[in-house]
Amino acid sequence: MVSITRAALVAALFASLLGAQANLATVTGIVTDAADAVIPGATVAILNTGTGVSREVQTGATGNYTVTSLQPGKYELTVVSEGFSTYTQRGIELLTGQTLRADVRLELGQVTETVTVDAQLVTLNTENGTIKGDVIVQEEIQELPLAGRDFTDLAFFTPGVVPKAEGGQGSGLAVNGARASNTNFYVDGFDNRNARGAAAQVRPNIDALQEFKMEVSGYSAEYGRMAGGVMNMALRSGTNEFHGNINYFLRNDINDARGFFERDKIRLRQNQFAVTVAGPIVKNKTFFLVSFEGMRRIQDSTKLTRVPSLMERDGDFSQSLNTGGAALYLRDRLASGACNANNQKSCFANNFVPLSRRDPIGMTLATTYPVPNRDVGPTGFNYFTVAPDVDNWNSPLFKIDHKLGENNLAFRWQTRYNDTQNPFAGSDTGQFGLFTKDDRSLAGIDYTHMFSPSLLFEVRFGYARNATWQEGRNAGQNISKELGLPDLIPEGEAKNEPGLLDWPQIFAGNNFSQLGPGANMPVQYFTTDWQYGAKMTWIKGKHNMKFGFNSNFVQMNQPYFNNQRGTYRFVGNRTGNSIADMELGWLNNVTRQVGFNRNYWRQHALGAFFNDDWKTTRKLTLNLGIRWEVNRAPWDKYDRLGSYDTDTLKLVIADDANAPANYQDLLDETGLRDVITTAGAVGRSRSVISTDWNNFTPRAGFAYRVNDKSVLRGGYGIFIAGDILNNLRNNLSNQFPFAINQNFVGVNGTPNLVSLQTPFPDARLTFSGTTTTNGFTMDPNQAYLQSWNMTIERQLPGGTALELDYRGSKGTFLQRRYDFNQPYRDLASYVSGQGFARPISQWNAINIFSASANSNYNAFNASWRKRSRGGLFWRLNYSWSKSIDTASQANGQSQGGFAQALDSRNLWLDRGRSDWDRRHVFTMIANSNLPFGRGRAIGSNWSGVTQTILGGWQLSGTMTMYTGSPMTIETTVPNLNLGGSARPNRIRDGAITNDAGVGKRGVDYPFYDLTAFEAVPCYVEDPTDVPTGCITQSSNGFSPFGFGNAGRNILDGPGLWSTDVALSKNFKIREGQNLQLRLETFNILNRANFIIQDDMTFFDGIAGGLLSQVGQVGRGGGPRIFQYALKYRF
Predict the structure, then answer these.
(1) Is cis: bond before 1027, omega within 30 of 0?
(2) Which residues are CB-contacts of 907 (< 8 A; sequence separation ≥ 6)?
(3) 797: left (phi over 0), alpha (psi -120 to 50) or beta
(4) How confident is the model at residue 1109 (pLDDT cuts 50, 70, 90)?
(5) What is the pLDDT confidence band of residue 4, given thresholds at 50, 70 and 90?
(6) Domains, the chain, ranges and CATH?
(7) How high is the pLDDT of residue 708?
(8) CB burial of residue 740 (10 Å; 0-12, 13-18, 19+)
(9) Among 128, 421, 451, 662, which is 20 to 30 Å from 797 by CA?
């Protein structure tokens, strides 16, 4: 099978490949006479009224005709046949990816006689089983209030599309139960998905968009690579007339509302400007589009966090409380005996750290924190800070269309230069921050050749480039050396990469803010995606057949500088307070990466498809297709990658030729010689993991016209769920010996063995941590999604249409992460003073990415729409859905979600609602000209000053209402060695159903019932020495060492309701020229919308207590904001 497939592939590459030309439109229909008899041989002409370009075809023996590959725009249809009057239909508007049915009935008469009709504004999808969402056309795009003038905002007004969870991976769009990382983006048919991180590569200027369409289920075999929605954007093209606009948008905080958590209004200065011009170079032949958009924004961001109190900064913890809000007994680990309410033999006297015991580096760190500025008690968020968030960008765009006889050539190019500053990267204190420069480009050229009206060939070549640089505010300063910590950056590397010199990452538990800009700074990556494709369209009788190939070759070059300066963790497990641990220099653990692994990754994605739209009868059309595609396993140019094999219990690296010079010594020092091998030695390729070549995915759909006003549609398909390339790189390249990840853990009895002065002792000592490794399923199955739908659509009076549908999906072999070396949680695995031992002693964590997750989604959707006529349009959408999975993303953690597998030996325990699951969703967009002024219901004959002041007003708006996304309740339990948080035991539901609290739920009192959860009991060797945060006995009979029975994503977080409104005044300057003054208001009701914040989900089991600020909600949508705009159109 594999050899045949590869041979066929080699042959196919001579014909080249397709990136999806499905942004183009098709007109199809049947020509009959008054007696309903078909008319063969009739001439059908379709004229683009903007460019003057016309296409002609002849009806076949069955009277059918089809005209494909038409640019979106306005058209006129003419049908001529001897013995019949000429038929002309005006005002046809073809939309992105639309197949429009235009049946024609000719009347007896002379060809010189013309029967003219106007096209219907609302048309039904009668030709395929795809759920497309409705196309949003240029007028609607420009009139809706969009907070960021960002095209992705339009997607949320399509049923089945919801925001991804906060902090989740991917595009920001979760579509029909698919992960946010599986959304496809196309601009004029070119792949606009960033290969590294799955978001959109470039963001076309709003004014340059002709149309926007979101396809969510059952789309044709032309589409591949990703299993989620398909976002199609068509750029405007020039016409025989010059058109354009000049826009300016201003935001200022003068009239804005104050945020819910802010004491004062935050500063906001935003200027956004755009110029777009389109027209002819040579009339009827060559056309251009030029657009430029830019933004300058500075907006203050605010944070609430916890910093050491004035007394704690001076070593005095007499007023401090433990995490449960009870009295703190500060334990001296160098003393023997107990330290609790009944026996304080080993406590520091008066909870005071003596001057003689204080570590100078630890004291420097503790006093680096800013001084508290809020009086909220000993466990509250006592520091409020405001810092500027800067976002500046420029985005030029150019497109040219040229007609070569019956053929077409088009080129487009866009880039975006972005400079940002994030003051809270790595730390909520605002002391550090992150600078980012991001340059992204997308270019493409396509050529369409017409061999005959029924045979078309299209070929295209595209190029996408992304270059990003990130570094901390203190980049270039050797902060570690200044603090007295070890200088871990070699002098040569520091000269080559000055950004490596910066703050190390300092982690303090007990809800204190971290210090430092982030362990992975600096970040640099350069990604290039070469796209190449071709497609043939062949119309034969009742069949409209398409077949083609596609290729994406991706290069990603990225130095891997993760954790080079080290991460120092104080969690309070030595004394009971993390700041006291810090001042004593008693580390919980310290991690670092040894080695500078520069990655030069390559990946090749290939695909081929066949699709047939078969008009079996006048009422029934079948859509049949099949697609083959493969995402080849990536490889590194210098073979610096590897994967842990869970079958052989060995780390397999691509090759050791480019290993560090001291590789052989490292094998001896780490004791890993017998558990590492090379790919060649075990018969594997340089990719180490294998490629799944057997990926044939069928697509089937139907559309049945019940009558002229009703259509029934359905579809089923299998869709490949592609990779996030950066996930693969992080886990295969971040690997011994190219990058050695070390974790050194302190021991309670001798806390100074791992100290600030010697944080990285000899790795061969038994108390030290061991190297972490990663892996991927060595022979992974390709992840895929099955998707199905059934839809009924009905045209209603008043130019409206109602659409009701059921849709579902099932994901299989989805990627997820788990720790293969997770400790067994039983007494036999417990090591005194160190917790649970790992089964494979040579390694610390073994993080495996496996194709073992699954998902299931079901939804009912309703949509009522009216297309634009005379300035009036609307869309009202409602969705009722449920999405369940065993992991919502391959890597990392959404806010309120749960990152790692709870029990690596029972992954089914993580089955729960998807992080983005929202049970009820309602969205609305609308626009209307107010009935005042010339040509309107009131004042139709106004003129002069009256018309200038009172006429020409317009109102538009959007509304979004979501129920809350789910959250997981977590707990901090000592000595479980989970590598993160755990889940508690659940003794009741936990949801607050009778909301009788005083104030606002989640702000003034907990968002959920804290008493419904109990922490997992700890194992305690000495009953007189109970570690902080432990309970020794469960009042509900739960055993020690358990994982906790609370499920994943079991409670609802806060919902969202936001209404945006725009009021516009139009001034007609002269024919074809208009000036619009515009006031946009976002969140006009000033409703406080909240999100789940990480601290909200943590529960502490001491007497049902809670961590500081647990159950508190965070900031979601902003307060009411005004935006002022001036638009000139011609």
Answers:
(1) no
(2) 816, 818, 852, 853, 886, 901
(3) beta
(4) very low
(5) very low
(6) 13-118 (2.60.40.1120)
(7) 86
(8) buried
(9) 128
